Task: structure prediction
Amino acid sequence: MLSYAEFYRRSIEQPEAFWDEQARLIDWHTPYTQVLDYSRAPFTHWYAGGTTNLCHNAVDRHLKDRADQNALIWVSTEVDREVTYTYAQLHTEVQKMAAVLKAQGVGKGDRVLIYMPMIPEAAFAMLACVRIGAIHSVVFGGFASVSLASRIDDAQPKVIVSADAGSRGGKVVPYKGLLDEAINLAQSKPSKVLMVNRGLAEMPMTAGRDEDYALLAAGLAGVAVPCEWVEAAHPSYTLYTSGTTGRPKGVQRDTGGYMVNVAASMKHIFMCNPGETYFSTSDIGWVVGHSYIIYGPLLNGMATIMYEGLPIRPDAGIWWSLVEKYKVTAMFSAPTAVRVLKKQDPAYLSKYDLSSLRALFLSGEPLDEPTAQWISDALKRPIIDNYWQTETGAPVLTIANGVEQKASKFGSPGIPMYGFNVKLFNESTGEELTGANEKGVVAIEGPLPPGFMQTVWRDDARYVNTYWKSIPGRQVYSTFDWGIRDQDGYYFILGRTDDVINVAGHRLGTREIEESISSHAQVAEVAVVGVADQLKGQVAMAFAVLKDPSKAATPNDALKLEGEIMKVVDEQLGAVARPARVRFVTLLPKTRSGKLLRRAIQAVCEGRDPGDLTTIEDPTALQQVKDLVQGS
Ligand code: ATP
Ligand code: MG
Result:
């Protein structure tokens, strides 16, 4: 067997041979004539000349062996329903949706915007689009009308697929009003809106534009809609980044390369076999939902669980009960969800038979050591951190236990994945950092592997200017994250390049300070930002959520705890990193994908306008920060 080091080296030194081999994981309608065309660098064109279809590979090709096997398991603790679809049933549903879309005039290259809660029809719609060569653009359900309108204008969809409502914590979240408002605001109007009626909320219909999906699909049970064979480079979807650092970027992804990389990751990273069950707790509105709720598991002939609901409702055992019931072998979640569970009784984690589970994969933001340790102790399973971006399509840093077993190091997402030539650079000189424990910008040298974003949707210039020109003298893709690599080649992510603070000439990653504060036993979660200071240039400000808020109930208690936390930072990092203040809140401002909105906290601390807040989860969290800052 190949060692991971050899496997990796081959992927970098002989990318064509390597990715030619991986391409056998999927079916091609016409074989490609060139594995990689890099003549338009930094743009890559993988599998030129080949035609294929994403829906064929995710659904149709499994019918021969797995028609009666579960493909999609939908669990909603919001409306208390569980529905499973076999591959044969999924095939039927997807063709119904495809027939309806076609009847509305949707064809190859047309965009379809999907603004939906986590219901099976959302999955049908995604698969139906790629089946007919349409480009889907999923917008996280629950984004309000302004965010939705800007995405409508960018994608210019012919058709929008939506539903009457989502539900969160048992409360109905109506969609239709927001959608109507968004369409009114948008310059580019869809010609049709297909509505799925869940019977949860009012659904006023605009005559001539809005259609009830169920009515159009009735009677289509046996309809056959053939797969449209598309070029490997044909866009399969566009999707927006989370907007943590500013205006979201419309990531455009191809068909052939994406399929190959996601299928390869199921084997090499997630160690999954066809016939098993995969459970990703993400949402289809995010890249994890695209790659690991829908496409990865289905490409691999697995059953995938699509979950609508909270991790703690009806109780904190719900996810683990699903692992037991469906014999989940791989689970994928986010540190933010684990921190939610950490505030609950750990007994919920030992209540169920988790013997089927091989590993828990976590991604999306830094996984701090205490959180990793806690979930590792509770689950007694490998906890595998993995670092990537909407842009990358699949993990960039993690460990590939499907190739060779390697130990994780807590605090590190791991080592570079095959195909990703990851390097560290000094951001001001462009010098490559080759030694151990040197801090630099994490960058990837081209050619980027299959599945990576092709470009920014309709904006090649923005793609090149944003990602490929930020490191002096280098044409490399910048991740805009800081990192170091230790003597064993493991990377540690130290935060985003715009989250660095400069205290009296010392450059500190906010993440290092957060990690230190998190090691205090009382702290559940913390955000650190740099705030302008006349004397020192910048000082660190910390906002912490306590495991037990009563510990800071009185001003005296809070001051005492603040002192204790500062002492921890002094001891671990030195007084230079000590925050000017540690304040206590019950909630931190996050994006809807669970990422800390440090730039908004920073702006509020400096009395500035917090800027684009369209992706914020709960505005009251920022209000708490405001109140504290103004009160002090
Ligand atoms: P935008 O690019 O619009 O500002 P975003 O970067 O938050 O938003 P995503 O693509 O959803 O949008 O997130 C990718 C980022 O998330 C990474 O660049 C990194 O900062 C962070 N991240 C993801 N996984 C990890 C991880 N395992 N460890 C540390 N950071 C992570
Ligand atoms: Mg980003």
User: Anything to note?
Assistant: The chain has 19 helices and 32 strands. Residues 241, 389 surround magnesium ion (ligand 2) (CB under 6 Å).
